[in-house]
Amino acid sequence: MNSRSIDGGALVTGGGRDLDQLKQEVQRRADRNMPPLGGIAPEDARAALARVTSLDRELWATAFGAVAEPHWQHAESLAGKNHPDAAAKAYWRAWRLFHFARWPTENPPAKRHARQRALESFRQYAALADPPIEVIRIPFAGNHITAYLRLPAGVRPAPVVFGIAGPDSRKEDVAAHSDGYLKHGVGLFAIDLPGTGESPHAAAEIHSDRIFSAALDYLAQRPDVDAGRVLVQGRSWSGYWAAKLAVTERARLRGAVMHGGPIHHYFQPQWLRTSLDTGEYLYDYLEAKCAMHGAGGLDDLLAKARAFSLLDLGLLDRPSAPMLLVNGAHDSQIPIADLYLLLEHGDAKEAWVNPQGVHMGRSPQWPSPVIAEKVLMPWITRRLGQVEGGVP
Question: How many CB atoms lie within 10 A of CB 179?
Answer without folding.
Answer: 11
